[in-house]
Predict the structure of Ribulose-phosphate 3-epimerase.
Amino acid sequence: MIGPSILNADLAQLCDESQRLLDLGADYLHLDVMDGHFVPNLTFGHPVVKCLRNKIPKAFFETHMMVSKPEQWIEPMAEAKVDQYTFHVEPVQDVPEICRKIKEAGMKVGLAIKPGTSVDVVKDYLDFADLVLIMTVEPGFGGQKFMADMMPKVAWLRENYPDLNIEVDGGVGPSTIDQCSKAGANWIVSGTAVIKADDPKSVISSLKKSVQTAIDLKN
Ligand SMILES: O=C(CO)[C@@H](O)[C@H](O)COP(=O)(O)O
Ligand SMILES: [Fe+2]
């Protein structure tokens, strides 16, 4: 599954850019929501996601919630018809409670961890989650360098939870995808590498091929 991040796209053309990426083979849209508090950057929130949903009724929307109070945005994002609510566990006291509220609101649950957070932190919550997002850059900005030293987290999760959806996000593109897919990631976020490519369709298809090849080799 390949989900482009539109963070580094022309946000004045959010709808056209999103539709273009879906038409070029993207499986879902990864929407980066930042509150200027959990991360030192601001993007957009549920009003924009809702408008985008009105224009793109069918695609799978994942919101990557880089926010200090993820509980605050569950209802508005559900109203905006978000499919998957992926939040960072670092600022949260009661992770199972947030997971329960997300599910109750009708969305899938993603648990995200920053590079400095051990994968042990999520292991007690996997029964409540549909996906774990391993950040491969410090959250906050697109276009950063991929952190290969996050791959042991992915590999450990894949080894111990063969059916878990594992997403990587940050600096992933044609030159780094093989490390991710070999470690066991099956949901791939790619921003700059897709958006800035001369041929985004072939980038999306090469990312997919790498993931599929790794899955085939394991089976
Ligand atoms: O969540 C984030 C950054 O915080 C990501 O979704 C990036 O925006 C992906 O962009 P690239 O690193 O692929 O350019
Ligand atoms: Fe993201």
